[in-house]
């Protein structure tokens, strides 16, 4: 059947009908007074979502673009940084640093295992000369379904005094409580196709006062990615360059929907969907890749030797997209996204189809055990 495709991946995520309609609105001039009012509303609601009084800047980039901007605006060539790596996106941060000539020290753990905050503490306390300029953390490591202990790591960064905390919150913002001001997070990057419930194309960066001071001494050349230009434009409810007008229409509508749901309800929903997905997988005899106490609320990674056969059957028979493993995990895990515009019904439907798929592929488990476990977790 046409138009029944269902995204159960960690991005892009499903887009609400109200947002789709907003995206189809006829464009208006991006320097007009009417568009300025839309920017003002978006800026206020982005601050609400980030739980910050500081600027949240919108860039015409993907999440990776926001990551790069979060580096080159606050650091300089030769700076020393610590980068947490326990998956694809932590490694991407390290690669970005190295491309720009930043002295990069990886603090690692196996994919599927959370980073150890004590390793950061040890490295930071040993830096008596205060040479470490930043600590970079991927909060929700999408490639492995792991949530890193950002709060504890950030406390150790704050005790250091000099270093910035730079956060990849691409799949945690809007799915998990990230109180930017309460935790004193300096640079937080995210992307539109995740918890924001709109298509790819916008990246977001919140910036603290401490980070803006570092901006003043950063020596990387930049033009389009110069966040100072975005800050100046933000103050006038404008943009430094031509924005994706229709994506902004969609963002305005999505943020309104999120406000009506409320932050606590959003976080509770994502945790409930996570619990249901994990309970169902366990009930069906599947192996969870990440531990319960470090489970991402955006995506659940499941280990099985027939991961690609499962994904293929789910797509061909039920038109449900699941994510695969990346790099060395390709074919060894599949990932179920439960991020953004996902409801209890979506998870129950996905688990039911997964049960049918597993049965077809010869898995041995108690019939309906997955849907029963998911339903019980959703109560």
Automatic annotation (TrEMBL):
Occurrences of domain Aminotransferase class V (ranges): 26-326
UniProt-listed SUPFAM superfamilies: PLP-dependent transferases
Keyword Transferase: yes
Co-factor(s): pyridoxal 5'-phosphate
Record: residues binding substrate: 335
Modified residues (N6-(pyridoxal phosphate)lysine): 194
Transmembrane stretches, start-end: none
InterPro entries with a match to the protein in the record: Aminotrans_V_dom, Aminotrans_V_PyrdxlP_BS, PyrdxlP-dep_Trfase, PyrdxlP-dep_Trfase_major, PyrdxlP-dep_Trfase_small, SP_NH2Trfase/AEP_transaminase
Keywords from the named record: Aminotransferase, Pyridoxal phosphate, Transferase
Family per similarity comment: Belongs to the class-V pyridoxal-phosphate-dependent aminotransferase family.
Protein name, entry field: Alanine--glyoxylate aminotransferase family protein
């Amino acid at each position: 059947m046409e138009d029944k495709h269902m995204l159960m991946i960690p991005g892009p995520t499903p887009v609400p009908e109200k947002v789709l309609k907003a995206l189809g609105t006829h464009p208006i001039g991006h320097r007009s007074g009417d568009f300025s009012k839309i920017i003002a509303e978006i800026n206020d609601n982005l601050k609400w979502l980030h739980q910050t009084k500081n600027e949240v800047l919108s860039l015409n980039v993907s999440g990776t673009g926001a990551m790069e901007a979060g580096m080159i605006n606050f650091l300089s060539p030769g700076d020393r940084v610590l980068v947490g790596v326990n998956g694809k996106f932590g490694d991407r941060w390290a690669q970005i640093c190295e491309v720009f000539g930043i002295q990069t020290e990886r603090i690692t753990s196996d994919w599927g295992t959370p980073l150890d905050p004590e390793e950061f503490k040890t490295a930071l306390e040993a830096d008596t000369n205060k040479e470490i300029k930043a600590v970079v953390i991927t909060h929700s490591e999408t490639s492995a379904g792991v949530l890193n202990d950002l709060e504890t790591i950030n406390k150790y960064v704050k005790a250091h005094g000099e270093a910035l905390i730079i956060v990849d919150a691409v799949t945690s913002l809007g799915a998990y409580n990230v109180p930017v001001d309460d935790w004193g997070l300096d640079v937080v990057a995210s992307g539109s196709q995740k918890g924001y419930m709109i298509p790819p194309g916008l990246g977001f960066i919140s910036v603290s006062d401490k980070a803006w001071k570092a901006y003043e001494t950063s020596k990387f050349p930049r033009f389009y990615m110069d966040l100072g230009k975005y800050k100046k434009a933000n103050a006038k409810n404008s943009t430094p360059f031509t924005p994706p007008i229709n994506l902004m229409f969609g963002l305005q509508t999505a943020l309104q929907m999120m406000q009506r749901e409320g932050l606590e309800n959003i976080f509770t929903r994502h945790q409930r969907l996570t619990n249901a997905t994990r309970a169902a997988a366990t009930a069906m005899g599947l192996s969870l890749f990440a531990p319960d106490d470090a489970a991402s609320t955006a995506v659940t990674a499941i280990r099985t030797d027939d991961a690609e056969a499962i994904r293929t059957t789910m797509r061909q028979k039920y038109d449900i997209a699941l994510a695969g493993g990346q790099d060395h995990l390709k074919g060894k895990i599949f990932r179920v996204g439960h991020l953004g515009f996902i409801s209890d019904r979506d998870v129950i439907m996905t688990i039911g189809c997964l049960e049918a798929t597993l049965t077809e592929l010869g898995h041995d488990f108690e019939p309906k055990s997955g849907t029963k476990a998911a339903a019980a977790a959703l109560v």
